[in-house]
Amino acid sequence: SNNQAEYEAFLAGLRLAEDVDAKEIKIYTDSQLVAS
């Protein structure tokens, strides 16, 4: 589903941020599932 795809993209982004030692990340979403 679209929610599943958005959640997987969210997790991939978090992993990438960790891999590059990001000091700050900003996540924008309109999905209550991801944001809650």
TrEMBL record:
A molecular-function term among this protein's GO annotations: nucleic acid binding
UniProt superkingdom: Eukaryota
Residue ranges occupied by any RNase H type-1 domain in the UniProt entry: 1-36
Protein name from the UniProt record: RNase H type-1 domain-containing protein
